[in-house]
Amino acid sequence: MKQMCCVQSWCLGVTLQLILAAVLHQGSATVAPPTTAQTTTAPHKEPARPERGIYHVSGSNGTMCLMAYMGLQLNITFNSVSQNKTVQEVVNIQPNVTKSSGSCRSENASLLLTTDGEKTNLTFVFTLNTTSNKYHLGEVHLSAAWPDMKEPFFVQNRSLDYLRGTLGFSYMCREEQTLIVDPKLSINTFQVQVQPFNLTGDQFGAAEECQLDEDDMLIPIIVGAALAGLVLIVLLAYLIGRKRSHAGYQTI
After folding, report:
1. pLDDT tens for residues 119-155?
2. How far apart are CA 143 and CA 153, in angstroms?
3. Count of alpha carbons within 13 angstroms of residue 242, beta-carbon side
4. CA 152 to CA 48: how far, in whole Å?
């Protein structure tokens, strides 16, 4: 009986280690939060989760060539007039007051989101590798002229590598992601699905899920397998202990 208890304790310890490892793995897979360099005051309270908007771009022939369905949140660091210091603002892109436009070419497609009466212009540029038939978000521009900004804000980065997908498929990520563009700008995406090339009408192609979603699905499988293994080992230990107990009685 003492041996069976030791086996059960060992099994429980192993299971707890497996569950802890799975949770730590999920934490390590999350995209790093944006840098807040040069910020001299605490950021304002973050707004609620942004509403998802659906944005379209049509080519010269009127056919839809890019479609995105996502919630967007901007993290901007700028010089404030009212506070006379550098501050960080977290602002949601509101679909009901945002216009989408852009262009599509054979190897790149752009999505321009204009909001606040053209005071905020956010551009995503996707690039297609025709050799591998893979696309990715390679470029982001943001210009803003808010009343509290001492000077107009402009950031661009042309060497990004986010939202990778395969030609003819849409990229999907249910988990929140942080796309770091510049020390002064990062973009939080929520439940994003985007396809910049080879759309069929107004429908997304089959979705390719991001690594964060795959990791999120993997954890319940690991935990379930660990618990099932624990039950099996405890049951075997119980049966072995019971068999030895009966054998002892027969010897006496």
Report:
1. 999 999 999 999 999 999 999 999 999 999 999 999 9
2. 5
3. 6
4. 26
